[in-house]
Structure formats: C-alpha cells, structure tokens
C-alpha cells in the first residue's frame, strides 16, 4: 500500500468515521499505508469500515463514543497512543446540525450543536497536543464549512460554531508552530453525505438544484473531500498551516 504523498507509517485518528467524509477519509488514508483509529457514535458503522480496511491489507481499530464528551476524546487518544505509540494525524470530522432560523433556535439546539461541532474539536486538539509535542510534530485537520465563512440560511447555530472552528484552527497553528504542529481546516462545500441528502429531501429541486449553487455547479463527493484531508495530513503539505482549504464553495443559498 504505497502512496505518492508519503503517508505510509503514520497513525491517524478519524472521528465521524462511520460514514460520509469520515469513512471516505479513513479509506483514503488506509490506502496510503496509514494506521487508523476510527471513532463514531455507531459501532456497527466503524466496524464495517475497519473490516473493509483490514480486508484490503490495512490496519484499523475502532474506539466508539460521543465526541461531545471530553472523557471519550481523551480515551480515544490514549487508546491510539497505547496501540501505536504515537498520533501523527487527527481528523476532527464529526458534526451535527439542526435546521431553523436564528429566532427559532432553542437553547438546547444551540448547545447541542456547539458541543458536537465546536467543543469536540477543542477536546480533540487539546488531547493530541501533548503527544504531538513530545514526538516532534503532527497534523490536525478539521472539517469546517462554507457556512462558517459566509453563513447559511436556516443553519445559523451550525454556521456560528463552524466559524469558531476556523478561528480555533488558526490560533492553534500560530501557537504550536514551533513544536512542528500544523493545524488546518477544510471547507468542502455541499457534500453528498447521508445527512445532507436527507436534509435536501425538503429543499425544492433536491440535490441537483442545490448543487447548482456551488462553485463547480455540483455537489462534492466524499471521496474528493478525503483527498483534501489526505494532502493536508501528509508531508507534501509540510509548509501549510493555519489555512482554510476551500473546496466546492456554495455561491448561493436556497431558501426552502
């Protein structure tokens, strides 16, 4: 399992690895020879992804739980270090959104999305930093969103927390550069994942019409997004830190 990016031998944690972007990223990294620890709320999903990786000759284990809980994140990182001795890459990917205009968002909906979208990223970064510092570096890649750059109709809470993720990413990149730690975010644009496709069932015109509002006039595929993550995780991006890597941005936002 060789890869032109030189990923072989690295160890990575991927959250939200059971489907969508997380699954695609796990499979892509595995093809490059990366050893993986997969986390998700749905053990049956990560078990299937890990089995697929092992069947292709790769290495993967699962450690499932709720990314909104600091104790779980600490255990996830500790498991990775116990098994593989290091953690070279962290892909903060798990996310959750509730549609609704800002005036209709409840306190519980705001806090729930904050915990999954923002708190989980903070917990993940904080947990891996000591290990990355001790080993001389590492790469942190977080899935943000175009909604965090320019807002998104009926996704105000999600967009606000994704914007905070971008700021946190840039701050970590500044603070830990001397320790060899790179921290970047991606904004993949509207991606054909299960939650997105389910949400689009209530949007006039569905996925096809929604995709026309993106820069490339179509929705992104999870496998395309995984290539963005793989590059940022690799030594090929050794000069890249504090960057928000723009994917297939939306240039217009429909109003269902």
From TrEMBL:
The keyword Oxidoreductase applies. Pfam families: adh_short_C2 (PF13561). InterPro entries: NAD(P)-bd_dom_sf (IPR036291), SDR_fam (IPR002347). Keywords: Oxidoreductase. The keyword Signal does not apply. SUPFAM superfamilies: NAD(P)-binding Rossmann-fold domains. Belongs to the short-chain dehydrogenases/reductases (SDR) family. This is Glucose 1-dehydrogenase. It comes from Yinghuangia aomiensis.
């Amino acid at each position: 399992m060789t890869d032109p990016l030189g990923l072989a031998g690295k160890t990575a944690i991927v959250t939200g690895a059971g489907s969508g972007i997380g699954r695609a990223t796990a499979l892509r990294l595995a093809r490059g020879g990366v050893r993986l620890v997969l986390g998700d709320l749905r053990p049956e999903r990560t078990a299937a992804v890990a089995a697929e990786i092992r069947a292709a000759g790769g290495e993967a284990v699962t450690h499932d739980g709720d990314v909104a809980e600091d104790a779980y994140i600490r255990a996830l990182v500790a498991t990775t270090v116990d098994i593989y001795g290091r953690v070279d890459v962290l892909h903060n990917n798990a996310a959750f959104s509730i549609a609704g205009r800002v005036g209709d968002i409840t306190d519980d909906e705001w806090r729930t999305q904050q915990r999954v979208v923002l708190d989980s990223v903070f917990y993940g970064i904080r947990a891996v930093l000591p290990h990355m510092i001790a080993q001389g570096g590492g790469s942190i890649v977080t899935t943000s969103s175009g909604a965090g750059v320019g807002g998104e109709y009926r996704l105000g809470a999600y967009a606000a927390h994704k914007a905070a993720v971008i700021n946190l990413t840039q701050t970590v990149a500044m603070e830990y550069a001397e320790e060899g730690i790179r921290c970047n975010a991606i904004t993949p644009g509207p991606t054909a994942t299960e939650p997105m496709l389910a949400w689009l069932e209530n949007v006039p015109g569905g996925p096809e019409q929604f995709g026309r509002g993106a820069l490339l006039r179509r929705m992104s595929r999870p496998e395309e997004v995984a290539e963005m993550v793989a590059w940022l995780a690799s030594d090929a991006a050794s000069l890249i830190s504090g960057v928000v890597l723009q994917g297939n941005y939306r240039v217009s936002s429909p109003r269902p």
